[in-house]
Amino acid sequence: MSTTNAGAEDAPWVDGNALAGPLGEIMGADFTVAELTCAGCRTTRPLAAMRVFDRAPGLVARCPHCEHVVMRVVRTTGRFLVDLRGSLVLSLPVPQ
Amino acid sequence: MARAAVPGRLTWQAATVAATRAETATARTLVLDVDGWTGHVPGQHVDVRLTAPDGYTAYRSYSISSAPGPDWLEVTVQAVTDGEVSPYLVDVAEPGDQLEIRGPLGGWFVRRPADPRPALLIGGGSGVAPLMSMVRAAMNPTRLLYSTRSPSDALFTSDLATARAAGDGLVAVTHVYTRVAPPGWPAPPRRLDADALSRVAWPRDADAVAFVCGPTGFVETVADLLVDIGHDPANIRTERFGPTGG
Ligand SMILES: Cc1cc2nc3c(=O)[nH]c(=O)nc-3n(C[C@H](O)[C@H](O)[C@H](O)COP(=O)(O)OP(=O)(O)OC[C@H]3O[C@@H](n4cnc5c(N)ncnc54)[C@H](O)[C@@H]3O)c2cc1C
Ligand SMILES: [Zn+2]
């Protein structure tokens, strides 16, 4: 699942926008425009604006305001696991 | 998104390298032919996947740098020393080669050409790639501020000059050089600062949107500076390429 083979200390994250591909494959929709309410600080923003750490294990999205983990995506043999315990609400636009 | 018409999950599809164009000594544009490609919204990216003969695969994200259109797209890649994927795309891939892509991806870092709000686009290094797509498709006032180490590191030099000349004042382009400036350049090389940003920023009441893209450190700095000079944080969209800048 990792999108880099890397290991630098300097600002090693990208934007949640980079999850569009992996989540599109798992969920079949663009989840980067979904809004998540952080369970740590209760602020709400699109997944695209969260910080994503893609250097394994799995993909981890953190709130840029308080650094709480809001979403984690892990692949096991045969299954994708999407852990949302760090978010209070996930809201998606109704398809047009 | 274009593929939403197909029910089910997003999948990888074959893309053929139709042509390549050198942008600088270490960056190039790849023209990719994709059957059934229906276009994209400027700002979107694709994931590109390579498969080794032994079956090992690796994928990376690349912004689409061409204007929206059917059946083909362009990505522009900066080679990262010791990188797994980018040196292959810059130095090895040839016309006729096949890759896999999935996309177009991402509905947030996008500028719909019909959006009437003026835009300030700020790119660092290869971060200009998705902004180039926005410039090529621009139908509304667009200002691009492009920061590179030196003139020879700048991508799309002639395409930007063409867009500026053709747009009838719609597109303005300002270069900032951080290490080496061209001969006779009015300012010494320096990092992008609040002063340089204030000079290209739209007035506060213009309801402008800002798109910032480049290495993660560059995007952090610029997004903070924009807020410092009074830009509404709700109208700032960012795309971080990672620590290397890609
Ligand atoms: C949404 C998105 C769009 C992008 N668009 C473009 C584009 O248009 N053009 C472009 O050239 N690039 C783009 N990139 C960057 C690109 O995806 C790759 O990261 C880049 O090409 C490097 O890949 P690589 O396999 O060559 O290097 P890797 O093998 O991934 O890394 C090489 C070296 O770089 C450093 N490094 C890289 N990533 C990390 C990391 N996450 N953490 C720590 N160290 C790291 C390490 O030192 C590593 O040894 C984009 C990235 C994203 C997320
Ligand atoms: Zn939070």
From TrEMBL, chain A:
A Pfam family it matches: DUF6510
Organism: Micromonospora halotolerans
Protein name per UniProt: DUF6510 family protein
Record InterPro entries: DUF6510
From TrEMBL, chain B:
Alphabetical keyword list: 2Fe-2S, Iron, Iron-sulfur, Metal-binding
Keyword Iron: yes
Cofactor(s), by name: FAD
Pfam family, one: FAD_binding_6
SUPFAM superfamilies referenced in this protein's UniProt entry, alphabetically: Ferredoxin reductase-like, C-terminal NADP-linked domain, Riboflavin synthase domain-like
Coiled-coil regions listed: none
Domain of life: Bacteria
Annotated protein name in UniProt: FAD-binding oxidoreductase
Origin species: Micromonospora halotolerans
Organism lineage string: Bacteria, Bacillati, Actinomycetota, Actinomycetes, Micromonosporales
